[in-house]
Amino acid sequence: MMIKARKALKSFSPYIAGRPISEIKRLYKLKKVVKLASNENPYDPPKKVMDAVIRGAREVNRYPDSNAYELKKKIALKMGVSPANIVVGNGADEIIELLGKAFLEPSDRIIVSRHAFIRYRMTADLMNAATKTVNMKNYTHDLAKMATAAGSKDKFIFITNPSNPTGTYSTKKEIEEMFSILRKKKTSVIPVFDEAYVDFTDAKDYVSAIDYFRRGKKIIILRTFSKTYGMAGLRMGFAVAPKKICEILERIRPPFNTTSVSQ
User: How far from chain centre, in Å, is Cα 98?
Assistant: First the structure.
């Protein structure tokens, strides 16, 4: 007799990743393929990255540092925070899932924009939690509406900024209006800023959420090495979060979730 899977998985659809170039060539008998499906950096990684990969490859007979001490220290220095505010993951995807596993009960809910990264909703579905979808305004997150929608059951508001796939961004004014609404509502919901594409905007009215974190805002910021740094194949992402949240995520994080090569 087969054991039964969790009820939440009955209607759960897996993430469908873009096919690798080798598969497309094989399927369609093509010699050259330009892949745009996964927003990968088409350029080779910098030489310093390749040198570090080679050094890391010499240590693959040993388990990596489970706490990623040196990596966290360097990320913290770059972000202007304490290493205690850093959690590293097998891509930012893993951290999104860890947030769900750590904090979402079946009675809870998350808030997302329509056209948002599907992994937010998938994480809620996995935990049998609900998702509130708020329509975009001119293909941009309507942060005021998202904040207004927040109630006692909501744990996270996921904000992709800059937004993928719409190619827009939320301004400093819009972000601060959202904070103002949340402050008046006295809700415990935590905004999660997914800044995978942070390096692809130079707009004067754009501001990274890290500035608000340094000023004491209770928010979470997700970053990745997959886009700007051209390291998608190494699977490395990180979160900047309040110390107590990091401690909880560290409790459930797989012990060797980042490799010697990626560190």
Answer: 10
What fold, for 47-252?
Aspartate Aminotransferase; domain 2 (3.40.640)
Q: Which amino acid is at 15?
A: Y
User: Other CB atoms closer than 10 Å to residue 185's CB: what's the count?
Assistant: 14
pLDDT, tens digit, 9 for 90 and up, residues 82-104: 999 999 999 999 999 999 999 99
Domain boundaries, the chain: 47-252
CA distances from 211 to 92, 161, 215 (A): 20, 14, 7
Q: Give the Cα separation of 30 and 201 in Å (integer).
A: 34
How far is residue 51's CA from residue 178's CA, in Å, rounded to a whole number?
43
Q: Give residue-wise pLDDT tens across range 185-206.
A: 888 999 999 999 999 999 999 9
